[in-house]
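Structure first, sequence second, as always.
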């Protein structure tokens, strides 16, 4: 089974008077992983598709030819994958590879079949995927967690000591516009990306996970002069428009996958926001 929800774009003026319910409806994906199903969101912010593929007994394949007006899903798109569940497999145009927890993959355009499966339905793989339009075919690259040396940044004094794992990134593999990575906060730390920033040239999506049932993350969004927030629980995802800040604080440490697409692939291309600008 496969479902895809369409989310349209909004200006900062649009959300000024949104209720909590409306803000959640437009920017939050409440259920990313559902056993035996593919759950996707198509956001018109730079036309990113993101979501979860959770195979059980039967392998799963994303089918979006009619929705995208193409013959097959990746005819004009590229794809990033990170497995945050149990061990699984992906089969790429007939070639099958193992995907353990935290392993990732970049798959270039014109790849006709990507089939997802779990090694054990009692401990299913949870493939988080992000896809963006692509103009050029770059090689498929498996990104094993054991091969990534994380960037260590932040400070316990500001509650934001964390490790950043770059997956789909110029330091790791070529892509058209997709970037994707994994940020893990150290125990006792709660903030990510603070001081915050915007990047008008790229949108972003987050999925928060590795959270206990009774913990929450407060995802900050909106313009620096008029901030809003979403309360996010484990394995929920958020759309972040290019004009919005995107920062978060948790009731405990957590992990999240970030994915970006837009005008460029310069990771450091951001507009920093001074603390005295935030309201």
């Amino acid at each position: 089974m496969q479902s895809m929800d369409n989310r349209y774009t909004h200006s900062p003026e649009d959300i000024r008077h949104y209720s909590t319910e409306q803000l959640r409806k437009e920017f939050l994906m409440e259920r990313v992983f559902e056993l035996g199903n593919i759950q996707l969101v198509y956001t018109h912010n730079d036309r990113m598709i993101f979501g979860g593929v959770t195979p059980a007994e039967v392998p799963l394949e994303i089918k979006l030819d009619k929705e995208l007006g193409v013959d097959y899903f990746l005819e004009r798109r590229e794809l990033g994958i990170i497995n945050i569940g149990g061990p699984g497999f992906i089969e790429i145009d007939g070639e099958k590879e193992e995907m353990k927890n935290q392993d990732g993959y970049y798959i270039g355009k014109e790849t006709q079949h990507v089939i997802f499966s779990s090694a054990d339905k009692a401990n299913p793989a949870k493939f988080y995927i992000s896809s963006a339009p692509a103009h050029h075919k770059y090689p498929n690259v498996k990104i094993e967690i054991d091969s990534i040396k994380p960037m260590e940044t932040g400070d316990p004094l500001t509650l934001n000591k964390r490790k950043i794992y770059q997956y789909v990134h110029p330091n790791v593999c070529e892509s058209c516009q997709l970037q994707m990575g994994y940020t893990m906060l150290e125990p006792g730390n709660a903030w990510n990306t603070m001081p915050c920033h915007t990047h008008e040239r790229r949108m972003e999506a987050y999925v928060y996970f590795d959270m206990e049932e009774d913990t929450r993350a407060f995802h900050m969004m909106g313009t620096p002069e008029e901030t809003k927030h979403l309360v996010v629980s484990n394995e929920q995802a958020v759309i972040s428009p290019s004009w919005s800040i995107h920062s978060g604080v948790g009731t405990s440490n957590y992990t999240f996958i970030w994915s970006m697409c837009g005008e460029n692939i310069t990771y450091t291309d951001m507009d920093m926001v001074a603390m005295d600008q935030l309201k």
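Margin note: The two ends are 43 Å apart (CA to CA).
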